[in-house]
Structure formats: structure tokens, C-alpha cells
Design brief:
Oligomer: single chain
Radius of gyration: 19 Å
Distance between the termini: 50 Å
Structural class: alpha/beta
Number of helices: 11
Number of strands: 14
Bound molecules: nicotinamide-adenine-dinucleotide
Strand order of the largest sheet: 3-2-1-4-5-7-11
Largest sheet: 7 strands, parallel
Order of helices and strands: EHEEHEHHEEHEEHEEHHEEHEEHH
Length: about 325
Amino acid sequence: MTPLKILITGGAGYIGSVLTPSLLALGHEVTVLDNFLFRQNSLLDCCHYPNFQITRGDCRDESLMKRLVAKSDLIMPLAALVGVPLCNRDAVATQTTNFEAVARLCRLASPVQRMIMPVTNSGYGVGEKGIHCTEDTPLRPISTYGITKVKAEELVLQRENSLSFRLATVFGMSPRMRIDLLVNDFVYRAVHDCAVVLFESQFKRNFIRIRDVVRAFIHAIDNFDTMKGQPYNAGLDDANLSKLELCAVIQRHLPQFVYLEAPIGEDPDKRDYIVSNARLAATGFEPEWSLDRGIVELIKGFTILRNSQYANV
Ligand SMILES: NC(=O)c1ccc[n+]([C@@H]2O[C@H](COP(=O)([O-])OP(=O)(O)OC[C@H]3O[C@@H](n4cnc5c(N)ncnc54)[C@H](O)[C@@H]3O)[C@@H](O)[C@H]2O)c1
């Protein structure tokens, strides 16, 4: 393997905090640019690597990005305001971070520099019953989050030497933990509250474990020339599940877990779809982590993590 100079924007985030140490361990030179929006300290364990560089800054800062891009063989734009609730709080920051900053990266990078970008598969929106969404299924994002990510992907795929991953909802532990992701959220509630109330419980989504996302990125580095130029769905084929089905899987691990249905909410992205991951599989990629293995991992993690700042127990 030839070590690459890799720039990861948002590398201190949920995915970046697992991706960065994995790339460093493989011998790549990794530079992370992050504004540490969540005051996270998730990359402390990377600082001992001589091949690790960190810049605290904003991905919207053109002169800074120009300098960082110039030194890179491969750029991974992860920096974003992620998820519908956060994006709805600040539409301007969402547009400038999720779309304009990526558009600028595309301008600053020379055509030979490679780019691998993660986007959400929530752009598929409401799928047709029983029909798998492929990469050729039209994207119809509804939320500002979905719209900005889809527009950014379009630009990335127009340039040479780029590919994107349309990620399923990610689950699993990360040093910068997110419990707002569906599987993580439900397992957290199952561990600490033993209960969850479901809305739109029959709506289907799909899922992938964070370590398989990292493996997919590494697979793309290793097979870049054959994979470039296309988007790839990345999810578990056997985890196209409704919320109700997901709860049943969690209950197998935590029998005391109770789940009820009630008309208490609506998914702002109107997600209800099943996804085919055949294109990525055809490149030789196979996920290693089942939902069950991920749930076991999360139960251990949430035995450690507990949000009890304002309680005595
Ligand atoms: N987690 C998922 O389920 C999922 C699914 C599909 C796609 N994605 C994509 O993967 C990427 C990473 O998502 P994540 O789950 O790790 O989210 P995250 O919120 O944990 O990570 C985002 C990172 O970007 C940084 N950031 C935000 N604004 C910035 C700015 N202006 N300048 C510099 N850094 C900034 C944050 O500090 C954070 O470290 C995003 O692009 C997201 O759209 C994630």
C-alpha cells in the first residue's frame, strides 16, 4: 500500500473519530480539519501518531482550505451540520457548510486529487413498497439536510476522481458518540429506560455499522480506479427494517425492553424505503458487522455512558 496524504474535514465527528485512527494505523498521513463544534475530545488518542496533523478551523474558510487542499492526495469532506433537527436550527449555516464548503473544495482541488464523500440515503425519501432503491432511483430529498447533501454530492460526482457513499443510518460506538441516530437511540433507551414509544413504526430504513463504514472508505481507497465516478449505497442487506422490527431485534438482547406504538410524531425526511447495496457488493465489499453484533457493542457502550448530569443517580 502506498501511504497517502489524506485531508478529512469534520474528522473529529462521529464517523471521523473512528475513520481517522483507522487510516493512521494503516500508515496514511492524515490531516483533520474540524471546528470542534461539540467540544469533542475524540481524537486525543491519535496525537501520538507522527503521521497525524490537526487544524482547528472552519471548512468555510477559503484561504485555510486552499492551503490544506494543496497538500492532499485524497480529500474526505465529512464536515457538515448533520441530521434534520440540527439543520433546521440554522438553515444558513447548513447551506454554507453542507453545500457551499463542498462546492469550494471541488473548485480548489485539482482534477487529479481524489475525493470520497459520505452522503445520506435519506434522499430516496418514500420508496415504492417492496422495491429496492438503487443508485439509479431518483433522489427526492425533502429536508434542508437532505437537499444540501444531495446537491453537494452532485458537484462531487461531476469532478474527475471522485466517488460517494450513500450511507444507511449508521450505528455503533465512537469516541464522539451520537445517540441521536436511530439504532443508537433505541438501544440507549432500552438500556436506561427499558422502553420506547414508536411513531411511524412500520416505516422501513436501513442501517450500517460505523466500522463497516470505515471499511468501505478503505475499500474505496484500495479500489479507487475501478470504483470512481459513481455513488454507492452502503448498508446491510439484511437490515432493511421497520422501527418495529428493529425493536424486536433489540428485545432479543434486552428482554425487559418494552416498545409501544403511538401517533406522536412524523419523520421530517419521510423516510420509508428499502435499499439495494448490490453495486458496492459487486466491487468486492462485504460488511462484517451484523445488527446483532452492533447491539451487543452498544449495550456495553451505554453501560459506560449515562446522561445523568442533573440527577443524583
Ligand atoms: N452518521 C450517519 O448516520 C450518517 C449517514 C449518512 C451520511 N453521513 C455523513 O457523514 C458525515 C459525518 O457525519 P457524522 O455522523 O460523523 O456527524 P458529526 O456531526 O458527528 O460530524 C460532523 C463533524 O463536522 C464538524 N463541523 C461542523 N461544522 C464545521 C465547520 N463549519 N468547519 C469544520 N468542521 C465542522 C463537527 O465538529 C463534527 O466533528 C456527514 O457529512 C454526514 O452527512 C452520516
